[in-house]
Design a protein that fits this description.
28% of the residues lie in helices and 32% in strands. β15 and β16 form a beta hairpin. The N terminus is likely disordered. It is α+β, with helices and mostly antiparallel strands.
């Protein structure tokens, strides 16, 4: 850090330095879409529309000439989820679901030049999944290319600057009378990957060396631990900060950590949770709770000292306590966050809802309460 600066100025300088360390050979505009492989895409789409406030956007399947799988695209703010189901049991999609259950397969990144993104990453050691491929229809063309990430997860580079259609070729607009209304979700803030013991640095290095990311922050088992379990995490970010990938691995503890539980039930590394941003978390969580979304329970004692820790905030603390929303502060401001219970029958994928009021951190001050809540759920499941 520089001398003779205030704490806030030092913090800003440090963040700027980290972002500058991220190389510019792979400029990314943001998250294009996240694709889930699921057992029943039609029902999954209904759930996310009802519970999370997504709306119908695009569709492909038998009616559009696709005899291998069907996909429903749902959208809210800048977030696009693609829910894909196989139409026959003998396919890569079917195999993925048998092994992992419903889960994230593709984290697609929006780029201006998919060919260049593919060439830059493969030349630096990324394993290729799909060479640059052009798809076209009357609305123009989309170029996609894919590389392998942790586990069976892949990254797809999507170039759509010459396309004006609803999503991409092969899809048609999904007209639906049932769109119950959005719940204020704006964009994907970050996506967390769980990997095996000893693999965190390997994948952090992958994002640094292959994709040009920088290490934004590191948490060790002294930061993220309870009496029984612990984990470690490195947060990797691209140059403009629009893509943030925390990478978790288990740390040694007396009992099975949440990361180990995830790895056991998912059948290997994968996306543990998706953090989505809102501008009004009180409204968003009120609406989601009313629609049946279940959230982790935060001990009531958490709120006894939170004001002493975070200081004055604009929100009413009694309302936050009633909804189970946690608060944390860093040098830039504060954030509000809450975590759903797993949205699958397997205790794997869950969502975080986050509202940033200037803060750029990830809620370190909430880790203790959060992980105690997760352990309470593990205890109920008999997997702690």
């Amino acid at each position: 850090m520089k001398n003779n600066l205030t704490d806030v100025e030092n913090f800003n300088y440090g963040i700027e330095k980290i972002f500058k360390e991220a190389q510019d050979f792979l400029p990314i505009n943001g998250t294009d879409y996240v694709e889930f492989y699921v057992g029943n895409a039609k029902q999954a789409a209904h759930y996310y529309k009802t519970a999370f406030g997504f709306e119908s956007h695009a569709y492909c399947g038998l009616e559009t000439g696709n005899k291998e799988f069907c996909s429903y695209v749902i959208k809210q703010g800048k977030i696009q989820l693609v829910l894909t189901t196989p139409l026959n049991p003998d396919s890569e999609i079917s195999d993925h679901i048998r092994k992992h259950g419903d889960g994230v397969k593709v984290i697609a990144l929006w780029v201006d030049d998919a060919r260049k993104a593919y060439e830059e990453t493969v030349s630096r050691g990324a394993k290729e999944v799909m060479e640059p491929t052009v798809s076209s229809d009357k609305n123009g063309q989309v170029i996609c290319a894919s590389i392998k990430s942790y586990g069976d997860t892949i990254h797809t580079f999507v170039e759509r600057k010459n396309y004006t259609g609803v999503f991409m070729p092969g899809f048609e607009k999904w007209e639906s009378e049932y769109n119950p209304g959005t719940k204020g979700l704006k964009y994907i803030d970050h996506m967390v990957g769980n990997v095996e013991l000893g693999e965190m640095n390997k994948w952090a290095d992958f994002y640094a060396n292959t994709m040009g990311f920088a290490n934004l922050i590191t948490f060790d088992d002294s930061d993220i631990s309870t009496k029984y379990t612990a984990l470690m995490s490195k947060v990797m970010t691209n140059g403009n900060g629009r893509i943030k990938f925390p990478i978790n691995e288990p740390a040694k503890g007396l009992r099975k950590s949440q990361v180990e539980e995830y790895l056991d039930f998912y059948g290997g590394p994968g996306c543990q949770h998706i953090a989505v941003a809102t501008d009004d978390i009180v409204y968003t969580i009120s609406e989601m709770r009313a629609c049946g979304v279940e959230f982790l329970h935060v001990p009531g004692t958490y709120y006894d000292t939170v004001v002493d820790r975070v200081g004055t905030i604009a929100e009413d603390m009694a309302t936050l306590k009633a909804l189970g929303i946690m608060v944390d502060r860093d040098e830039e401001g504060y954030l509000l966050q809450i975590f759903t219970k797993p949205v699958e029958d397997r205790p794997t994928l869950f969502f975080e809802i986050i509202q940033r009021k200037g803060a750029m951190s990830f809620g370190k001050g909430n880790f203790q309460a959060l992980f105690e809540s997760i352990e309470a759920e593990q205890q109920r499941r008999g997997t702690l």
